[in-house]
Amino acid sequence: MSTTYFVDSVDGLESNVGYDIDHPVATAARALALCVAGDTVYLLTSITEVVTIVKDRITLVGAIVNGGIVISNADNVTITSLLIANATTGISIDANCDSTKIGSDVYFSNVTTDLADSGTNTLDVRIGTTEVAAAVRVELANELAVIINELLR
Prior knowledge:
This protein is α/β, with parallel strands linked by helices. The chain is built from 2 helices and 12 strands; from the N terminus they run E-H-E-E-E-E-E-E-E-E-E-E-E-H. A 6-stranded parallel sheet has the order 1-2-5-8-10-12, covered by helices on one side. Strands 3, 4, 6, 7, 9 and 11 form a 6-stranded parallel sheet that branches. The longest helix has 22 residues, at 131-152. It is globular and about 60 Å long. The N and C termini lie far apart (49 Å). The model is unreliable at 129-135 (pLDDT under 50).
């Protein structure tokens, strides 16, 4: 059975249970610490932190992440319905991650690099179909072309 944990940086408390919308936790870090595979973290308000996901089958959905998202050693992570803002890298995915899904409703604002492979260029990423996601697909296609050229040498 999966659980949804709610994050409210204004009214949440780290001591709250998090799975009750009336008793949210204050940070994504706390919600993610409570999660197990298959759970969802729902951001009710804007947060200012780098969100680091290190567990399989986690879904991140909601408001605004000021600071970016790092996915490390986690498979089948889904990111949807949010804005990533004010970060050098919007989403950083390491080489030990498979089947990351980025929804067509993920947007970037004041971000230097929307999506970065911080590992060994072995991403398996599913991206939605908005114009923002299309730009990310072009970046991935360019990375893939470089890898193919290197392999053909």
